[in-house]
UniProtKB/TrEMBL annotation:
It comes from Micromonospora saelicesensis. Residues 324-334 have a biased composition (Basic and acidic residues). Keywords: Signal. PANTHER family: D-ALLOSE-BINDING PERIPLASMIC PROTEIN-RELATED (PTHR46847), GALACTOFURANOSE-BINDING PROTEIN YTFQ (PTHR46847:SF3). This is Monosaccharide ABC transporter substrate-binding protein, CUT2 family. The keyword Transport does not apply. Residues 49-307 form the Periplasmic binding protein domain.
Length: 334
């Protein structure tokens, strides 16, 4: 730089002109970088993610996992909370298509009605990854892969445990069921798996089954109705911990002892659920892991690079009794 100061006027002018061109060039380049919205040639992957909502402890843990994993993986995350509405998810996905993100991922609130918007993403050449919940589209080419749990299996494990517990029951065992939101894959599948498993013992009967929308408030409200309408309830199967936790309030208010007068089985194994299980208020939980973030980011990198990925990736899960919950609780991450 010292040398430049000694340069003659014409050289200085040329140097100034060159630096103006250079700055202009960088600025123009910067404009086109951000102007596109999502596509950047800086090698950074942009993911548009549409989340179901914030209805449960599971969902909160899932959102945290996705946000943390994106930051860790250096993936730029555009995140939208659909507040349980399919129309909001469709809107968010259309926005991501317009913004030309590199990958779209979402957790579909219900199974049906996605073909049109998925086709739009495919036509725009943007790969889609389903996470947590799946869709019922016949055309599997509309998405690259589905990462999540086997919900039928969760329901089955819950039912099998009950069959074992009640194998010596001589009379009818009355079961009430709190379902997830209507049309959601985990609601449909957990119901199916549980129903199939308890068919092994004709004494086990579902006497009432209603959606509680995966929320505590929903669980409490529907359980109150169940208790009013049915004098003898032996078992509650709730499709998630939160509905089970809401139901605890209704059961206690009705003067019954949860975990003793009514056997309670749930799905998820989030901290509050595990605490209720350790305390003996719940009796059994089939685990469903919300920690899908790291695997999702890994898949996003692969599909972005054009690599083949398996069409279905299943989460590893277990089940918990009271004793096992006591043991697992201190190290539970969510
Ligand atoms: O079990 C429930 C949540 O889709 C697996 O959604 C998820 C379910 C989870 O609201 O707590």
């Amino acid at each position: 730089m010292g040398k430049m100061r000694t340069q003659s006027a014409p050289w200085r002018a040329a140097a100034v002109l060159a630096s103006v061109l250079l700055v202009g060039g960088v600025a123009a380049c910067g404009n086109s970088d951000t102007g596109g919205g999502g596509t950047k040639d800086d090698g950074k992957i942009t993911m548009g993610f549409s989340q179901v909502g914030a209805e449960s402890g599971w969902r909160t843990a899932n959102t945290t996992s996705i946000k943390e994993a994106a930051a860790e993986a250096g993936i730029e995350l555009k995140f939208d909370d659909a507040q349980q509405k399919q129309e909001n998810q469709i809107k968010a996905i259309r926005n991501y298509i317009q913004q030309k993100v590199d990958v779209i991922a979402f957790s579909p609130v219900v199974e049906s009605g996605w073909d049109t918007v998925l086709k739009e993403a495919k036509d725009a050449d943007i790969p889609v990854i389903l996470t947590d919940r799946s869709v019922d589209s016949a055309d599997k080419s509309l998405y690259k892969t589905f990462l999540g749990s086997d919900f039928v299996k969760e329901g089955k494990l819950a039912g099998e445990w009950l069959v074992e517990q009640k194998k010596t029951a001589s009379g009818p065992v009355n079961i009430v069921e709190l379902q997830g939101n209507t049309g959601a894959a985990p609601a449909n599948d957990r119901k199916k798996g549980f129903g199939e498993a308890i068919a092994a013992n004709p004494n086990l009967k579902i006497i009432a089954s209603q959606p509680g929308d995966f929320t505590r408030a929903g669980g409490k409200q529907v359980m109150e109705q169940f208790l009013k309408a049915n004098p003898k309830i032996d078992v509650l199967f709730a499709h998630n911990d939160d509905m089970g936790l809401g139901a605890l309030e209704a059961i206690t208010a009705a003067g019954k002892v949860p975990g003793k007068d009514i056997t309670i089985i749930t799905v998820d194994a989030v901290k509050d659920g595990m605490q209720a299980l350790a305390d003996g208020k719940f009796n059994f939980i089939a685990e469903c892991s919300p920690l899908l973030g790291p695997q999702l980011m890994d898949l996003a990198k692969k599909v972005h690079a054009g690599e083949e990925v398996p069409p279905r990736i299943e989460t590893e899960e277990t089940t918990f009794t009271t004793e096992q919950a006591k043991e697992a609780l201190p190290n539970r991450k969510y």
